[in-house]
Amino acid sequence: MIAGLIAALIAGNDLEPTLITLAALTVMIRVALGAASDVAGVWTGQMVTAAVRADVLAGLAALGPSWLADRRSGEAVSTVIEQTNAVEGFVSRYLPAQKLSSAIPLTLLAVVLLLDWRTGLILVGFGVAVPVAMGLVGWRTAARARGQMTAMRRMSGYFLDRLQNLTTLKLFGAEGRERAEMRRVSDGFRERTMSVLRLAFLSSTTLELLAGLAIATVAVSLIADSAAGDAGGRVLIFVILLVPELFLPLRRLGQFYHDKAAAVGAAEAVLEILDAAETIAPSESEPMPMVHGAPSLSVEDLFLAYEDGGRIAVDSVSFSIAAGELVALVGESGSGKSSILDILAGFRVGWSGRVRIDGHVVDPAQVRPISARAGQAPRILAGTLAENLRLGRPEAVETDLWRALEAVGLADFARGLPEQLDTPVGDGGRGLSGGEARRLGLARAIVRDARLVLLDEPTSNLDSESEAGVLAGIDALRAGRTMIVATHSKAVMDRADRIITLHRGRLKASEAGTVDG
């Protein structure tokens, strides 16, 4: 229709109102479809990105904190946020452009071949050159993009590590060296990013050059045919207008090729987590029994080796704990106490053996709804004191929170805060001492009303006042709960109903044969 209007203008003929209306309507429909395509692409990209991010988080949850502890947390954060974001551009821009880059040119090429076979052959020749050029440039771009994504993960881990240890760097006067090292790492990442962009722009430039040469060649050929009387003016204008439309999807593909390169580079980190999660053997556990009071617990032939296979953390350990017992796990550092607690909390993968709750074989991950674990350094999240207390039970009322604080000796401390339970704590808020943080961890367990409580060195390195507060919290937790406490503290051992001693990952001889039935 546009070619007909232009040919009529050149010939000095009157323009048909119907043709003008149809041409305008067609342009409007094209614009509307283009906008709808962009909206659909963005929506789909966001949905897929959210699904991938959910899969990555589910994989991290399945692998447990111990798997994450062996890696830089900054790299994991980069994978969950930046790397998964790379999927959005791939889905919303590159994939649609890839589909259109084959469908539209082939359709238009068929039309051109029907109108002028010689012009069609010219376009076929240039069309063959496009994937060849894209393949050569794209191969290098993908390799550079993978390197850039790896560098981004490492840089994120490096920066977070330095930020978390800023106090140590200041104490040792190392901030100047680290500042220079940060500048070097940042410059290295900048150079990698610019290298990827140069290659991405090269692909776009290559396509623009091929498209320009094709249009020029077709125009010269058609003008020559027109001068010889072999082509009509309307057909000539139509084909010349069609050639840029034929190359437009290919140019858009080149424009968005860096989205594919970024996604391919990000996939390595994403798949590392997903593949690791898939290697976890399915549990042969029974359905988790209903637990209303303190549960009994037993472990049979518990075995765990570190990932490198160089050292055994837990070696064929078996013991049983009666419902409502407080058992102290005792042994030198590295004897396997924390590893056993990690297994029972569902934090470890790659272990073998059986865990029974009330006689039923269960997967420790199934036990999480009725259990609580507190370590030597409980994580205090950035939020209010109330939000930290409600982590395991969001529906807990304020009365429950104050009761838990009273039990661990933190009620007076909380009343003295500017906004009491609504006072921000953690990063950006009111700081807590080591003893206050541990007592807050115990208060969380009380609020959660966990039936099985696992404590790891709750009183180590505390002054007498803080230790007394933690011991009071342990006493408050005992009623109606089964507790396992890894400890070196005599005060905790004195409170225990029984002591289980470990040495180099194994039970001492006096503890052998303690599994019931």
Notable characteristics:
alpha/beta; six-stranded mixed β-sheet; ABC transporter transmembrane region fold; 517 residues
Describe the secondary-structure layout:
Layout: H1 2-11, H2 17-63, H3 65-69, H4 73-115, H5 117-164, H6 166-171, H7 175-227, H8 233-255, H9 257-278, E1 297-305, E2 312-321, E3 326-330, H10 337-344, E4 352-357, E5 360-361, H11 364-367, E6 371-374, E7 383-384, H12 385-389, H13 398-407, H14 411-415, E8 424-425, H15 434-448, E9 452-456, H16 464-478, E10 482-486, H17 490-495, E11 498-503, E12 506-507
Parallel strand pairs: 3-10, 3-11, 6-9, 9-10
Antiparallel strand pairs: 1-2, 1-4, 4-5, 7-8, 11-12
Could you explain the architecture of this structure?
The chain is an alpha/beta fold. 63% of the residues lie in helices and 11% in strands. It folds into two domains: 2-278, ABC transporter type 1, transmembrane domain (ABC transporter transmembrane region fold, Up-down Bundle), CATH 1.20.1560; 297-511, Rossmann fold (3-Layer(aba) Sandwich). It has helices at residues 2-11, 17-63, 65-69, 73-115, 117-164, 166-171, 175-227, 233-255, 257-278, 337-344, 364-367, 385-389, 398-407, 411-415, 434-448, 464-478, 490-495, and strands spanning 297-305, 312-321, 326-330, 352-357, 360-361, 371-374, 383-384, 424-425, 452-456, 482-486, 498-503, 506-507. The longest helix has 53 residues, at 175-227. It starts with a helix and ends in a 10-residue tail after the last strand. Residues 512-517 have low confidence and may be disordered.
